[in-house]
Design brief:
The structure is a single chain. The strands form 2 sheets. The protein has a 4-stranded mixed sheet. It has a two-stranded antiparallel sheet with strand order 2-6. The longest helix has 17 residues. The chain is elongated. The chain has 8 helices and 6 strands. By secondary structure, the protein is of the alpha+beta class. Helix 3 runs antiparallel to helix 6 and helix 6 crosses helix 8. It starts with 9 loop residues before the first strand and ends with a helix.
Length: 189
């Protein structure tokens, strides 16, 4: 689920990579049907991702990236593609004003050739498994809808099995994975 509100040529998936967006998403979807949530949460994929929790909004991130591209004459698709090729990899990294490193890749959506996401283990980020993030987001919403405790194992497993089609878990550790992200989301929602 990329953010079409951001200016072209930026391709950014805030539900995967931006804590501020995730918190707003949870608030906006307190009454959403599980089917709607599942469709959105499927866009998180099934591997690991890097989640930015710094103070820059997704709009500021896009603006700073575009500014960098403009300053280096890389805004056109041709110039940006050549920039990636000259780097010898399919990506490049830039550092934004808050000191966070961001990865620039080739975007596959028309008009959005600059795919942007936080660099692995960058400052103001944390690495998370997609299933843990999906579970934490859905459980935060479900606990409000069903008047159940978000941290309860039965609530978590109900959401994983009935809403997300995932296997139940045997236990939750509040310092890692699902427990860590539930605690983080519950503290800010």
């Amino acid at each position: 689920m990329f953010s079409p509100e951001l200016p072209e040529p930026i391709l950014f998936h805030p539900l995967k990579h931006h804590m501020g967006f995730i918190l707003a998403y949870i608030q906006a979807n307190q009454h959403a049907k599980p089917e709607h949530l599942c469709k959105d949460l499927l866009t998180l994929g099934s591997s690991q991702l890097d989640l930015y929790f710094g103070h820059l909004s997704q709009e500021q991130i896009a603006e700073e990236t575009i500014s960098y591209l403009q300053q280096h004459n890389l805004l056109s698709p041709e110039a940006f593609r050549q920039y990636l090729i000259e780097g010898g990899t399919d990506y490049r990294c830039i550092t934004l004003s808050d000191g966070t490193d961001w990865v620039l890749r080739w975007g596959v959506i028309a008009g959005r050739h600059v795919h942007l996401h936080p660099a692995r283990y960058a400052s103001h980020t944390t690495r998370v498994k997609a299933a843990a993030l999906k579970t934490a987001i859905a459980t935060s919403i479900a606990s409000a809808q069903l008047a159940l405790p978000a941290s309860g194992l039965s609530t978590i497993n109900k959401v994983r099995v009935e809403w997300l089609g995932l296997s139940p878990v045997k236990w939750i550790n509040e310092h890692e994975g699902i427990g860590k992200f539930l605690k983080l989301l519950q503290g800010q929602v």
